[in-house]
Amino acid sequence: HGIPLTDFAADPRIDLTIDGADQVVPGRLDLIKGLGGALLREKLVATASDRMIVVADDRKLVARLGGATRLPVEITAFGWQVAMAQLAASGCAPVLRMAGALPFVTDGGNHIADCAIADIPDPAALHARLCAMVGVVETGLFFGLASEARIGGPGGVRRLTRRAGISP
C-alpha cells in the first residue's frame, strides 16, 4: 500500500501510536498490556511516541489494574526457572505461558510469566519491584504513556483523556 517502513535507527521518535489494551483505568489511563505477547516491543514503541491512543471495548475498563486479568511479565529464556521462582516468592503466582508443549517465545526471544495479582493500587511501585528481579525483562504495566483512550460500547465510542477523565 505504499507505506514506508522505518526503524528506530532512522527515526528515533514516533508521532503517534495507536494500540489496544487488556485493562484500562479511566482518568489515569494506567494499562495492562501484553496478553498478545509483544509487551516489550509495544512498550518500546509507546515510550518512543509523542502520543499514545488506546482503543478498547468497555469490558476492558477497571477501577484498578489486576484481578481477573493476569499481569504478563517478560522473563529471559535462559534461566526462566529462576525468574519464575522469584515471582512466586513475591506472591505473584506466575504461570509460564505455553505455545502447545513448549514455552511461548516473544518477538524478543524471551518467555512470559502470567502473574495473578488481585489488586495493583500502585503500578509504578509494582513495576519497579518486579523489574528489580534478576531475569525479569519488562512488565505489562503501562503507566504515564497513554494520553487518550477510545472506548467502544453499546452506547457508542467514548473518549477518555489522562487529564480530563471521561468525555462524550
In short:
The protein is α+β, with helices and mostly antiparallel strands and 168 residues long.
How much helical structure, as a percent, in the residues?
10-25%
Oligomer state of the chains in this structure: single chain
Binned strand content? 35-45%
The strand count comes to 14
Radius of gyration: 16 Å
Spatial strand sequence of the major β-sheet:
1-4-12-13-14
Give the low-confidence spans.
none
Let me know the average pLDDT.
Answer: 95
Q: Spell the H/E element sequence.
A: EEEHEEHEEEEHEEEEE
- Separation of the first and last Cα atoms: 34 Å
Shape designation: globular
Largest sheet, strands/sense/barrel? 5 strands, mixed
Tally of helical segments: 3
Structural class: alpha+beta
Structure notes:
- By secondary structure, this protein is an alpha+beta fold.
- 17% of the residues lie in helices and 35% in strands.
- The protein is built from three helices and 14 strands.
- The chain has helices spanning 39-47, 80-89, 123-131; strands spanning 14-19, 23-25, 30-32, 49-57, 71-75, 94-96, 98-99, 102-103, 111-115, 136-139, 141-142, 148-153, 156-161, 165-167.
- It has a five-stranded mixed sheet. Strands 6-9-5-10 form a four-stranded antiparallel sheet, with helices on one face. A three-stranded antiparallel sheet has the order 2-3-11, covered by helices on one side.
- It is globular.
- The protein starts with 13 loop residues before the first strand and ends with a strand.
- The mean pLDDT is 95.
